[in-house]
Amino acid sequence: MGSQRAVNLHLHSSSRGEGPDVILLHGLFGMGSNLGALARALAEDFRVHSLDLPNHGRSDWLPSMTLEALAAGVRQWQRAQGLERSHLVGHSLGGKVAMRIALDAPSTIGKLVVADIAPVDYPPHHDAIFAALQAVASAAPTSRSAAEAIMADFISEAGVRQFLLLSLAAGEDGSYRWRFNLEGLLRDYAAARQALAAPEPFAGPVLFIKGELSDYILPEHRPLIEALFPNASLRVLQGCGHWLHAEQPRLFNATVRRFLLAD
Fold this sequence. Notes:
This protein is α/β, with parallel strands linked by helices. The protein has eleven helices and nine strands. Helices cover 37% and strands 17% of the residues. A seven-stranded mixed beta sheet has the order 1-3-2-4-5-8-9, sandwiched between helices.
């Protein structure tokens, strides 16, 4: 699994701050700027790198979007930047990619923070979002408001629509298209949801952060978490769901920063 390589893959990134390196990995349908508030909070003590994952944002697309392929793309970026050892923080899909990297290349990782995701296989639950994305792609709207109106037929939550609209970009013909590889995300959706396995656990310090109102980390996930990450701890953030970094940004940012700074 760790031997997969992404050849000549460009990952869009931005960096800020000085100190030990921290890499931030966003979730499905997102981009590096989604964790911008965390990047700003950590930049006082760390050199923070915000990446667009492969098939997302302004990064190149991969022919396969397995967790191994995504992790290989991030590892290639690490090597190109000369980062021998970094802390990793990942939310949702980014958390699964971060866990995959830690299991495949443990010597390159210091501390690991996994935000509201577990190393388990999840049932499909993005049908409405995929339907909305496909409807927008087919319509090729000429404004963001038109795109949101299309999505409103499928997605009732305004916050989710606004999050997705961040990945909409105008083409030369004036129509709006998704930055992410929608076809690839649809094709490899099952692979991105898969459970993690490894011949050896990651022995480094790991913090899992769960949103109190989210069901992404459940008590029945604990045995696999402990098997793969025996030095893991769990923090539950009150009053927030899966989008904990957006719903409780100060508490989330402080929790991550405290863990990364601890001896």
